Amino acid sequence: xxFELEPYPYDRLDGLREMASKHPGGAVDLSIGTPVxxxxxxxxxxxxxxxxxxxxxxxxxxxxxxxxxxAWVERRFGTVVEPGWIGACxxxxxxxxxxxxxxxxxxxxxxTVLFPALSYPTYSMGARLAxxxxxxxxxxxxxxxxxxAISLHDRNDALLLWVNSPSNPTGALTDLARCAEWGREYGxxxxxxxxxxxxxxxxxxxxSVLESGTGGVLAVHSLSKRSNLAGLRAGFYAGDPNLVxxxxxxxxxxxxxxxxxxxxxxxxxxxxxxxxxxxxAIYHSRLVRLANILTAVGVxxxxxxxxxxxxxxxxxxxxxxxxxxxxxASRLGVVVxxxxxYGEGGKYHVRVAAxxxxxxxxxxxxxx
Length: 368
Hints:
The protein is an alpha/beta fold. The protein folds into two domains: about 10-30 and about 275-365, Alpha-Beta Complex (Aspartate Aminotransferase, domain 1), CATH 3.90.1150.10; about 40-270, Type I PLP-dependent aspartate aminotransferase-like (Major domain) (Aspartate Aminotransferase, domain 2), CATH 3.40.640.10. The protein contains 13 helices and twelve strands. The chain has helices at about 15-20, 40-50, 65-75, 90-105, 120-130, 150-155, 175-185, 225, 240-255, 260-270, 275-295, 320-330, 360-365; strands spanning about 30, 85-90, 110-115, 135, 160-165, 190-195, 215-220, 235-240, 310-315, 335, 335-340, 350-355. A seven-stranded mixed sheet has the order 2-8-7-6-5-3-4, with helices on both faces. About 50% of the residues are buried.
């Protein structure tokens, strides 16, 4: 066997879960960023009454869905993207994992995928699944990519540059316009994962790579985090007309289709901003509570610039992220993600997801 998969990261937490579950009330699992709050009723109504379940949905997305995406991009970021420059995807994780392989069909002479050194593991895995070479790009202090650190060889061989702002796991914000400029200068497509764009804090505005124009870029958006619809698997990509049209055709042949009722529900979600404002308040409140709980047991946790994760440094004299994760499971009955899941640079941090209801946070606070 020439390709060997390491264990899926979150499957490595079983020992921590067992330790945490010994506390009265059980484990409080803050390891995976899965939404727990209800989606808006308008979405559920659209899902159950679309009449779209009878026939195959268009792989590119229905006209209504693509128009809803275009209207949302214009409202959210003040930039115009034609509906024809948008495609549907079956949740953005499958898109992240499959994009390198599809782009390789277009650029057969290139074999490197660039991605942030601290990031979602699927950027690297997508390259490996396509038989390509993943290369981590170091980050500058405060967040963002050190584009000058990319070697000449890696730049010339780059099939794709991934960026992610707000960042998972750190919450840092990236200068997306600068990344787009770099990509255009060197002929490297830039794919910007913007699934946390609705969650920026301290009055910082969210940005999209599309604000600097569509040439050479793809913005990737998800309904999972924005609207608590992770179970529906709905997202979209938008940007360079040539890239989008190529991907629409390839994905059509691959049979990748978002179910019709899901597209109807996603269109309704994109048209409703009230539930997003409410969700923002919920996540910010949880982040503050979690930071206070951790600080109370001697683990300093600052609030992020964006996203709904705390990126918590390991306090001395503890060793690495596994030591802190084990201590938190034993002391508080809480399960967190060791930072090593997101790259070698995360070895001395853990990620804490603000994704449990308030009664579970009350339980956690009672253990302090």
